[in-house]
Amino acid sequence: MTSRYEAVIGLEVHTQLTTSTKIFCGCSTAFGAPPNSHTCPVCLGLPGALPVLNRTVVEYAIRAGLATRCTIAPRSIFARKNYFYPDLPKGYQISQFELPICTGGHMEIETTAGGRKTIGITRIHMEEDAGKLIHPGEGSRFSHVDLNRAGTPLLEIVSEPDMRSSDEAVAYLRKLHQTVVYLGICDGNLEEGSFRCDANVSVRLRGAEKLGTRAELKNINSFRFVKQAIEYEIERQIDLIESGGAVVQETRLFDSASGVTRSMRGKEEAHDYRYFPDPDLVPVIVSEEWIQSVRGTLPELPDAKIERFASDLGLSRQDAEVLAADRALADYFEACAAAHNNPKGCANWVMGEVIRVLNESGQTIASCPLPPENLAGMVKRIDDGTISGKIAKTVFLEMWKSGKKADRIIEEKGLRQVTDSGAIEKVVDEIIAANPEQAAQYRSGKEKVFGFFVGQVMKASKGKANPQAVNDILKQKLAQD
Amino acid sequence: METTGLTIHEMRDLLDTGKISAAELTGSFLRRIHELDTRINAFIRVTKEQAEEAARRADRRIREGNSTLLTGIPLALKDIFVTEGIETTCASNILKGFVPPYDGTVVRRLREQDAVFLGKLNMDEFAMGSSNENSAFGPVRNPWDETRVSGGSSGGSAAAVAACMAAGSLGTDTGGSIRQPASHCGVVGLKPTYGRVSRYGVIAYASSLDQVGPLARDVEDCSLLLQAVAGYDPHDSTSVSLPVPDYRGSLKNGVKGMRIGCPKEYFIDGLDADVIASIRTALDRYRHLGAEIVDITLPHTDYAVACYYVIATAEASSNLARYDGIRFGQRIDDGGGLIEMYRNTRARGFGAEVKRRIMLGTFALSSGYYDAYYLKAQKIRTLIREDFAAAFDQVDAVLTPVAPTPAFLLGEKMDDPLQMYLSDIFTIPVNLAGTCAISLPCGFSAEGLPIGMQLIGKPFAEETILRAAWAFEQEAGIRKGPPL
Question: B3-253: which CATH topology?
Fold first, then answer.
């Protein structure tokens, strides 16, 4: 970016809520059902049908509002947003306009420079999703309409234009994503469209007060594309201004294949949505008691968790962040550390082998076949010297595959570490006797051969000898002669 | 008199004592519809087979001794009620061919009693009109004078009951659509308090004003029908969960000591002399019955019609957006693409008045006009509601005319929408205030046309106005059936 300019970015995020039924009717929200099978008179917009608000949607909105430090409105209103499109059965979307449920919140992000920055949340409102159009492609005069998604509850979360770079935008988006998934209100699945982002981007001369004309970027459905789209757009706007042109207010579509944004519609073609309060719905009344009871069910959020992992459990900040990034992973770790009081040891195994094997097998922590208690049982055996760290890797994989507990595997496979110094001495004596040449080398000062002896002894003991004991005894015996 | 001329409560006795069967009763109504309705045009569709089947079910139930108030009673529904498996058009070309997959709540409640549905009744398209001339199925003719309008929009509902083609009917009232045709056709019509009856399955015109209500031959029948359909419905967020009182049980408690208000704003220029005379007579009758007549004022009455035509049309412009040719009803697709399909479907599917109101409402909600029209109208609506609240601090009910004139001639006001809109001047304020009102016959014009009076009650005080209406009806003894 030309350093004379700075970018101003605000994001509008649509999160699909994980309620089991739709926002205004009892139809299922499950993804992937045969077209139009999850529909009823209400979500089909049939004449005479009326919406009835799903209370869980309000509860989820309160959760999101509390997590982002918003004010929860004691009274909020649903409004109709009027426009024609075949995926919008009633010819209007039920949304919130003048009186949304949450306003005036904020979230902290970490900047690339390592600092922290507060991003304002303008508002959060509840609304219904539209259906989907399916285009059979060339040669067909028709498109098909699938209304399974129509009426799926959404929260639209609108930020203040507080971000100044694509990196900040991505950091905010990741933080928001992490938060809604943590809250259990959104599955966060970007491919299925559960978490969608539009970006408002403008540029202005550094130091200028007035905002530049903004473009709204749509159709950016991954964190990588958000970065790409915003960077492309910033550059496009600066080039435009530098070459004497002016940015026009418009909606632009991001094309992920080519990495560019293209004009979709200008301000003149902008819809007049003719918002007005929906007379079919009564105001949403949220009592202070309700807010408090929802507050009581809020899970610990990532920032607090990181803090606790670091200060109470003694993890490094970096490890704490890795574990807290994913609520399920953090829960897994905590269950493990609760079963065996060695947080650091447990954390290393969770971040190391558990994640590695999950990734290799394409699984997620939610479907991890190894219960955290079993992992804890194994770490315990390392800590009490029953097995070595090296043998533990064998035990780990066996636990993963068979579902057996560590103690049983150690017993069945005879993996118990040999700590009996008499037994080890006997092996050491034999090895030294069998390798006089290397023993002489060691004694003449070539200490590198020490490793050779360790290897030989471990091999002879099938890895079960306590490595520390082997070291001690070898040193002592080699020095003797 | 034929059985078709009886009241519901009279039919009930005959049915329960076995003097007549539901099948016979239904048969008489079907014959009368067959004989008369080519002249009146009250029905859009007669559901003969379903009616006969329902009558047989009702007879079984009566024989088993399980009949309820409406078991076996032949009723008819305004074509605004969605009925499972029966084409529902709202008198619009755009909905021709639409067969709903579900019953609305009031229809379900009546079916559960094994009431018999004779068919779907004519109306102004999407309930927009005051004469029933805005129908894709032609106008309804007034049974008292077939050159005159039935009133609207529930014209078919009023005419069918007046002409004894149904024992009772259901209509909807957004600005007077039950009361005004009831008045013109000489029957009793009740608009309940907003929220008293579920709107689920009632095709929306103006959601904040629409309310379902009964039309019947007398006040007692009206109370029976209200009893059957009133009450909270979890499918309608705007329905109210107040207990439903026993309307019929308190009918005969009299009006002694009741305070009845008479608002001076309702005696306007252009009010027909016969209407004035009938209302004055009614006031005298109430005095005679022991009620106290109190002069009151409803100062914002003048603004009601303008306010209504902003709010109702604004809501309608949005409510009618779903008729886009995509999922149901008529689609007119000339192969010109999506936008062309929308345009053709709506241009040809909707009638002139519906299009006029969609345009008015779209304009009122448009960016830059919203505050001046929609928001302003909402403020006026609050003032009108406060007018009534203040009046009801002084009185138990308000007595007014229903319409400025008796039924006018067919075609008389079709070229003058403003004149047409003014025919609802006395009924509209009640919808804006969200309260209840009943229209009942109180006299006849010099030409022999029925004249109605309106009793307006406090919110959810249907009991009070039914009681006052019953007392008047007993005292006045006004002839019920038209000369057909």
Answer: Amidase signature (AS) enzymes (3.90.1300)
